[in-house]
């Protein structure tokens, strides 16, 4: 081993190791590496001393700071629950108008309402409440029973055509055996005209007769002007919102076979506060539009 040997090109000392004529330069480890090695080792030792670190069979080194993450999490959960209780209590005790006038409270209501709606209502009404065939869109501002939070809460509580004793009841009668074919075609065409749909000349000719049938058979529930009656849960036929469809075939089917949608009662499944939150949430959907 020739320790003193110098590399002729770089002029640096070699370690004396040699492989097939290739010699290793004696380059020291860079200081920065040593520095970080020392710094991280020091950090690790200090951290072991301060924080919970080493397992010791049944227990562990607790650390000088005495931090216990289980307690930290438990405390956070307790704080969150306390925070929730504060606002749920306010929702439970305040009137709908008071809650709606409190922006901070409404933020909680909307957050929690969205979750409750997703868990319980979205299967039928869609995640944004926009409904689908057979399930009403709750975001149009056009309501079967009324769109104030009080009325919506009652709808949610008792359901529609459901099994609860207090359920709201509404039925679109089947006119298939009450009216003849002509009358059915005429009144269905008249219904299409109510929402301003374009009609062919042959259809326009049916309108006067259709209007007569409507006046005789339909106004009791849908109103003189066809705008519906909320105390009967009968829909407005003059707007573009349809539960079952506004095309000629769907309207004809509604009149021929009748309709009776079912909305479950939630009284036994949701707390009064949850129903209140959902009613405020559903009421806030209107204006979100279609
Ligand atoms: C099993 C399906 C189903 C579920 C689940 C459901 N609904 Fe309904 N809901 C309906 C149907 C169907 C109607 C319309 C009934 C009718 O045609 O008369 C309706 C009607 C309503 C109405 C009346 C709308 C109006 O125009 O007056 C409201 C409000 C409502 N639902 C809210 C909710 C809320 C809130 C939930 C969740 C707690 C919910 N629904 C869950 C099927 C459902
Ligand atoms: C006894 C009350 C009642 C009478 C009478 C009645 N309707 Fe209805 N109608 C309803 C109710 C309630 C609904 C909603 C049914 C549901 O969603 O469950 C409805 C729904 C409809 C729909 C479906 C609306 C949609 O959004 O899809 C059409 C169309 C309709 N009625 C047309 C008529 C016509 C035409 C007549 C007369 C020939 C008539 N109705 C008579 C109560 C009535």
UniProtKB/TrEMBL annotation:
Localization annotation: Cell inner membrane
A GO CC term assigned to this protein in UniProt: plasma membrane
A GO term for molecular function: iron ion binding
Binding-site residues for heme c 1, renumbered to this chain: 121, 124-125, 263
Keywords recorded for this protein, A-Z: Cell inner membrane, Cell membrane, Electron transport, Heme, Hydrogen ion transport, Ion transport, Iron, Membrane, Metal-binding, Oxidoreductase, Repeat, Respiratory chain, Transmembrane, Transmembrane helix, Transport
Pathway of action: Energy metabolism; oxidative phosphorylation
GO BP, one annotated term: proton transmembrane transport
SUPFAM superfamilies: Cytochrome c (SSF46626)
CC cofactor: heme c
Cytochrome c domain residues: 108-195, 205-286
Transmembrane segments: 29-50
Residues at which heme c 2 binds: 172, 218, 221-222
Top-rank lineage group of the source organism: Bacteria
Cofactor detail note: Binds 2 heme C groups per subunit.
InterPro entries noted in UniProt: CcoP_N (IPR032858), CcoP_N_sf (IPR038414), Cyt_c-like_dom (IPR009056), Cyt_c-like_dom_sf (IPR036909), Cyt_C_IC (IPR008168), Cyt_c_oxidase_cbb3_su3 (IPR004678), Cytochrome_c_Oxidase_Subunit (IPR050597)
Leader sequence segment: none
Main location class: membrane
Protein family: Belongs to the CcoP / FixP family.
Purpose: C-type cytochrome. Part of the cbb3-type cytochrome c oxidase complex. FixP subunit is required for transferring electrons from donor cytochrome c via its heme groups to FixO subunit. From there, electrons are shuttled to the catalytic binuclear center of FixN subunit where oxygen reduction takes place. The complex also functions as a proton pump.
NCBIfam families in alphabetical order: ccoP
PANTHER family cross-referenced by the UniProt entry: CBB3-TYPE CYTOCHROME C OXIDASE SUBUNIT FIXP (PTHR33751)
Oligomeric and partner information: Component of the cbb3-type cytochrome c oxidase at least composed of FixN, FixO, FixQ and FixP.
Protein name: Cbb3-type cytochrome c oxidase subunit
């Amino acid at each position: 081993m020739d320790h003193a040997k110098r590399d002729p090109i770089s002029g640096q000392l070699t370690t004396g190791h040699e492989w097939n004529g290739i010699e290793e330069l004696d380059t020291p480890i860079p200081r920065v590496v040593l520095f970080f090695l020392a710094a991280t080792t020091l950090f690790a030792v200090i951290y072991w001393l301060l924080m919970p670190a080493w397992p010791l069979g049944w227990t562990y080194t607790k650390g000088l700071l005495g931090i216990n993450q289980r307690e930290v999490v438990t405390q956070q959960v307790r704080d969150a629950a306390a925070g929730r209780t504060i606002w749920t209590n306010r929702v439970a005790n305040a009137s709908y108008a008071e809650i709606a006038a409190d922006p901070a409270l409404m933020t909680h209501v909307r957050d929690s309402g969205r979750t409750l709606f997703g868990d319980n209502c979205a299967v039928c009404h869609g995640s944004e409440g926009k409904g689908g065939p057979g399930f009403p869109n709750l975001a149009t501002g056009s309501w079967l029973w009324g769109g104030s939070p009080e009325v919506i809460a009652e709808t949610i509580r008792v359901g529609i055509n459901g099994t609860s004793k207090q359920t709201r009841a509404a039925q679109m009668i089947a006119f298939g055996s009450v009216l003849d074919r002509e009358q059915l075609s005429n009144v269905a065409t008249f219904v299409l005209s109510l929402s301003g749909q374009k009609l062919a000349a042959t259809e326009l000719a049916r309108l006067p007769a259709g209007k007569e049938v409507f006046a005789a058979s339909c106004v009791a529930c849908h109103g003189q002007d066809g705008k519906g009656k909320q105390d009967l849960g009968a829909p407005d036929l003059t707007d573009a919102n349809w539960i079952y469809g506004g095309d000629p075939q769907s309207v004809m089917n509604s009149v021929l076979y009748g309709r009776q949608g079912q909305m479950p009662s939630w009284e036994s499944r949701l707390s009064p506060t949850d129903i209140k939150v959902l009613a405020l949430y559903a009421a806030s959907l209107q204006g979100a539009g279609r």
